[in-house]
Amino acid sequence: MKIIGITGGVGSGKSRVLNEISNRCKCIILFADEIAKDLEKPGEKCYKDIVDLLGKEILDEDGRIVNKLMASKIYEDNSLLEKVNNIIHPAVRTYIIEEIAKARHEGLVDYFFIEAALLIECGYNEVVDEMWYIFAREDIRRKRLKESRGYTEEKIDSIMKSQLSENEFKTSSDILIDNSDSIEETMLQIAKVTKDSSFC
Questions:
Q1: b/e per residue, 167-182, with b = 16+ CB within 10 A?
Q2: CA distances from 108 to 8, 28, 95, 102, 105 (A)
Q3: pLDDT value at position 8?
Q4: Count of other CB atoms within 10 angstroms of residue 104
Q5: Is residue 7 classed as helix, strand or coil in its secondary structure?
Q6: Running DSSP on this structure, what letter comes out for residue 132?
Q7: pLDDT < 70 regions, the chain
Q8: Edge-first strand listing for the sheet containing 27-31
């Protein structure tokens, strides 16, 4: 089983590529953001620490963390972002490592993909066999974000500035997959990289 990290800037099409991959091979795909949301639910690993840090005003009437309320609280005090990340990221990493061990033991899949924008920053190079940078030209990324999410140029600028530069992604990754054009062309690149015709 090969463990592959999938990273890239906003609008590069990571989820679209992974959705296509899931249709073509025996694999497990974990999205770090989804794991984080699960771990923030009442009774889960991160819930109590986040509520203790940010207060009960971030909860809805059922006691669940409201992401918008949590984000606004963090926005008011930038030091809280690092503290929240120090709660969530280690818990997500532990969960992923446990799932990798389980998948290895079961031996049912050929690939184990982990997707997150912050894989490089969180040191997942030590966890994966290969880090893939899903790249797309900036004009394509902007077009996708406007069409699929309705983002303004200002919002896109803000998000892009907060992420690693193209050069930082490239230098920290093992493989560059250009997802600027059709998904078929992207999958041909993946077939070539993996030497696995099932991706074609």
A1: eebeeebeebbebeee
A2: 28, 9, 19, 10, 9
A3: 95
A4: 12
A5: strand
A6: E
A7: none
A8: 27-31, 111-115, 2-7, 130-135, 175-178
